[in-house]
Design brief:
Blueprint: H1 3-13, E1 31-33, H2 42-45, E2 49-53, E3 61-64, E4 74-79, H3 99-109, E5 118-122, H4 139-168, E6 172-178, H5 180-193, H6 197-202, E7 203-209, E8 213-215, E9 229-230, E10 239-243, E11 245-247, H7 264-268, E12 283-285, E13 297-298, E14 302-305, E15 312-315, E16 319-325, E17 333-339, H8 381-384, H9 386-399, E18 405-406, E19 417-419, E20 426-430, E21 436-442, E22 448-452, E23 456-458, E24 465-473, E25 477-484
């Protein structure tokens, strides 16, 4: 397949059939965080003050982060985890969402990153906890599992497409998710980024907390995703980071039999590249990134909300972490967390009881789900590494270099010049060495918009958004992204 065919197949793949009645993201009430919400956007309401608590509670260090008042060129798109503890397997309609818990979890997991840029968080018809607590055995049950998550995903996809078309304007993108949110984010990576080099060039990083990952054996790609790589030891944009956290002295769980990794419908419907087959070469990874904890050492900073949720509290030296591999379980590597006893430590992690569903989420050892110490720290995956991510993400932003086109040939003297881009009206297409035969324009969903037969044309009547422009010459075809302002 030529590169042109490859890119065009990508464009038309974007128009895959959607689940009926996806949520309308033109409506502000279907967003938790969005610039359109203005004063009610909790990403802007939340104070970004971080108080680092000292063991003797004296002379605490106060760091005053601020939300940017202008577009920084960086956007965060976050998918929150399962907050519906309904044991019945179904999807939760938007009006029935527990928005108090959803907002609390956003603040805990992502709120402090609002210092980096605009934040976009859609409400979506998520699957209940009941979808994740049973193991589908029959083909009908496997299909039902896929359907529940596909309904949730199609909302996330529609929200992302709305953001991409109306607000992105070529900005760098940080994807963040946890638990079910990570699952849906991986589906989004597969359907919008995995075969799209232009969009992938905008991806700073995909943060996938609390979920395993699957790649080809001895490879950073070729599993759940075909081309998106796991982040290695070098700074590199466009990668995914996944990890899970477990309490020291316990054994991390290997891949659960109910995981969608095993469900062939997810691959057949295009939500992932391929399912996991333990009888074939490949590697299931509970964690693919160690955050520098290859040796046991204090975590950089545990960050949580203050009891009244008015600011963030940071705890240094309270926990140790070690990236541990259990050789008895294939792919079972994870962050092992232990409490680091500090003499005369008077600090206490708050217990705000803000929600009837997740009232004790800031306290790692005990939670709403268990009256005995937790074995896994699933609810706290994000908090343990926030200090590390606050150091890592700005460095990844620096090395992210979005591109606006993917030329068909390596000879850049012969590439097509399209300007201005972004544009508000007239577009000029120029190349001195090849005769341009036709110019076709497609929208973000891969739908044909219009064909032009001159090198200068107007898009002034088109809505603002992102389009794909296909330029055919007498020798080659070029695909380029065109941004209409």
């Amino acid at each position: 397949m030529t590169k042109t065919a490859f890119l065009l197949s990508l464009i038309f793949a974007i128009s895959a059939s959607a689940v009926a009645q996806t949520t309308n993201y033109d409506l502000p009430q279907n967003w938790m965080c969005h610039p359109i919400l203005k004063s009610t956007d909790i990403a802007r309401q939340q104070s970004l003050t971080l108080t680092v608590k000292l063991p003797n509670l004296s002379a605490d260090t106060v760091i005053a982060y601020t939300s940017p008042t202008t577009d920084t060129g960086v956007d965060i798109f976050y998918v929150y985890p399962t907050i519906s503890m309904n044991p019945t397997s179904r999807n939760i309609d938007i009006p029935q969402i527990d928005t108090i818990t959803a907002k609390f979890v956003y603040r805990e997991q992502v709120g402090i990153y609002a210092q980096l840029g605009r934040v976009f968080v859609p409400y979506y018809k998520q699957a209940t906890i009941g979808v994740f607590t049973y193991s589908p055995k029959t083909d009908a049950e496997l299909l039902q599992q896929e359907n529940y998550l596909e309904v949730a995903y199609k909302d996330v996809e529609a929200a992302f497409d709305h953001y991409l078309e109306h607000y992105n304007k070529g900005n760098k993108i940080i994807l963040m998710g946890h638990s079910q949110g990570s699952d849906l984010m991986m589906f989004l990576l597969r359907n919008r980024f995995d075969n799209n080099p232009v969009l992938t060039s905008q991806l700073v990083v995909a943060i996938s907390g609390g979920e395993p990952y699957y790649s080809a054996k001895d490879s950073r790609t070729g599993g759940i995703l075909e081309h998106i790589k796991t982040l290695g030891s070098e700074l590199e944009s466009g990668c995914i980071i996944s990890w899970r956290a477990w309490r020291s002295g316990t054994q991390g769980g290997a891949l659960d039999s109910s995981s969608f990794f095993y469900n062939h419908y997810f691959a057949e419907k295009g939500l992932i590249y391929q399912t996991y087959d333990k009888n074939k070469p490949g590697i299931h990874q509970e964690s693919n990134y160690d955050f520098g904890y290859s040796t046991n050492k204090p975590i950089t900073r545990y960050i949580t909300l203050s009891p009244d949720s008015t600011e963030f509290w940071g705890f240094d030296g309270m926990f140790n972490a070690r990236f541990f591999t259990d050789n008895t379980k294939q792919g079972c590597s994870y962050l092992m967390i232990e409490t680091n006893a500090v003499p005369n430590d008077q600090r206490a992690i708050p217990n705000p009881k803000l929600s009837p569903l997740l009232p004790e989420i800031p306290i790692p050892d005990l939670s709403h789900f268990s009256h005995t110490p937790n074995n896994n720290y699933h609810c706290w995956d994000m908090q343990f590494v926030q200090g590390d991510l606050l150091n890592l993400i700005p460095e990844l932003i620096k090395v992210t270099q979005p591109i606006s086109s993917v030329p068909e040939v390596s000879d850049f003297e012969n590439t097509i010049l399209i300007y201005p881009n972004p544009t508000s009206g007239i577009v000029h297409v120029n190349n001195s060495s090849k005769k341009i035969k036709s110019i076709k324009l497609y929208n973000l969903q891969g739908e044909f918009i219009e064909e032009f037969f001159t090198n200068d044309f107007s898009v002034s009547t088109l809505p603002a958004g992102i389009y794909f422009i296909n330029v055919q010459t007498d020798q080659s075809t070029f695909v380029n992204k065109l941004i209409k302002q």
